[in-house]
Amino acid sequence: MKLSFTKMHGCGNNYIYFNCFDQTVPNPEELSVRLSEPHFGIGGDGIILISPSDKADAQMRIFNADGSEGKMCGNGIRCVGKYLYDNGMTGGRTTVKVDTLSGVKTLELAVKDGKMLSARVDMGAAILAPQDIPVDMEGDSVIGAPLVVDEKVYHITCVSMGNPHCVIFLTEDIDGLDLARIGPKFEHHALFPERVNTEFVNVLPDGSLKMRVWERGSGETWACGTGACAVGVAAVLMGYAAKDEDITVHLRGGDLTVRYTDETVFMTGAATTVFKGEIEI
Length: 281
Known about the structure:
Elements: E1 2-10, E2 13-19, H1 28-36, E3 46-51, E4 58-64, E5 69-70, H2 74-86, E6 95-100, E7 103-112, E8 115-122, E9 145-149, E10 152-160, E11 164-169, H3 179-187, E12 197-203, E13 209-215, E14 219-221, H4 225-237, E15 247-251, E16 254-260, E17 265-270, E18 272-280
Parallel strand pairs: 2-3, 4-6, 11-12, 13-15
Antiparallel strand pairs: 1-2, 1-18, 3-4, 4-5, 6-7, 7-8, 8-17, 9-10, 10-11, 12-13, 13-14, 15-16, 16-17
């Protein structure tokens, strides 16, 4: 059986995309593990299925590199918007709706010469209630709370953007972190019943934020859109940034712009098509 695919990335957060309007992808959990492997597969952070939806222009389903299904991916949804527009599936409209496990998200596309260059995504309201993130702590929110991991005290701020995030602001340069060692200790900590994505952040002199991210099910990735949103929200909650102003977040794969308002969180960034191909499974 042969499947057509498109390799795309948003700030280096790269997935293998399958158009399921005209083909069926069997066993996506197993296929994601196989194809994400860089030496014997295509290589990537997972696979994303673009399928018909009865309440949006398309539905996206995300499968991480370990086969687990994710609820939402901010970089992935921009690539879905680009795929739909560039392939003539929006009727030329630059406002696109995508159905996810975290609800329907609206994208405003910036286009040039018939191609989408970037998108502003309405990511929905930030979720701060611990039971809804989920994180096993009491209270109305988790902001700067101490947590001991590997005999070190970290101060965590927890946010859900459709998936759970644990944000940690550090004074030491995050470039020197052994993320492969410390990341799994947060991901599988008993405090997080559904595991967690963890962002380690430096506040730079100009007020912008530099982050590295350990994603549940994928390990360290070059970018995480929902993670950048969570970092922007956490920065406001911790007093490092202002609400309803653009916040620049520097990721390993590029920059995203986040704006946290009383009603929602907006994320703006580029999306890139790398190549198209066909694989026999």
